[in-house]
Amino acid sequence: MTGAGRFAPSPSGDLHVGNLRTALLAWLFARHTGRSFLLRIEDLDDRSSSEVADRQVADLTAIGLDFDGDPVVQSQRRSRYDEVIDGLDTAGMTFECFCTRKEILAAPRAPHSPPGAYPGTCRDLDEGERAERRESGRPPAIRLRSDITEFTVQDELCGTFTGVVDDFVLRRGDGVAAYNLAVVVDDADSGVDQVVRADDLLSSTPRQAYLAQVLGLPVPTYAHVPLVLNTFGTRLAKRDGAVTLTTLASVGVSAERVRAQLAGSLGLGDGSETPDPATLLARFDPSKIPAGPWILDPVDLL
Ligand code: GLU
Question: What's a Pfam family this protein contains (predicted)?
């Protein structure tokens, strides 16, 4: 097998059918192209829990997905992230940032600077100014000294996408590696060359692809898949009702039935039969994935 795809959940809450649909798509894309399929537990956040991670793995297995090798666990890779950040630091490509979120939002910015982009406040502090800010007691975040303002990626489903690349955070003030850094390092270290995930992450992708390039790492292929929305048109969440396998099981809906519904939403079944994963794989055609979000009324799962 050549290359790998992956699913990389954050274990801060049980997976809902929207997450499961994204996982199924990532699995289908990987297997369809003869890649291995890896699981990564993105547990750098304080809200992560190993019990939730175990339930996520059990739910993914219950809908029929299989993974190669042991999961990569981000909390066990802190020293690797520090090593990469140190390398960028040595190359003069980082700076310390003492700003609070509030200061960043309030800072004056250049007339054409993109909304939400870091305004550059700490980029050019001299040694004296940095020492003064260190004394204020706030541990600095480490940002990338980016030499571009935007970057273009190719996405298998969304086409050509150009997005903001600012001096984004590599390591937070609390010492934890930032999402954008960890994702890029992990994908490259584990041989992931195909990234399939929900399209709410498309806007982070130019930053990640640029960082991969800066680090001399291969840029993976991308496919950002449409989100699942509730009937109000907002992102599906647990408050929308029975949307996790556990809550669905408690009202008599099996994991096979959920897989059948997901297959129906992807045009891979009519929702009434319960096709096994191999059948879904045989039917899978990336060019036929519905372009818009799947609007789900959880009652329809019953
Ligand atoms: N951990 C992220 C999430 O659960 C996904 C990261 C990724 O796929 O790159 O939203």
Answer: tRNA-synt_1c
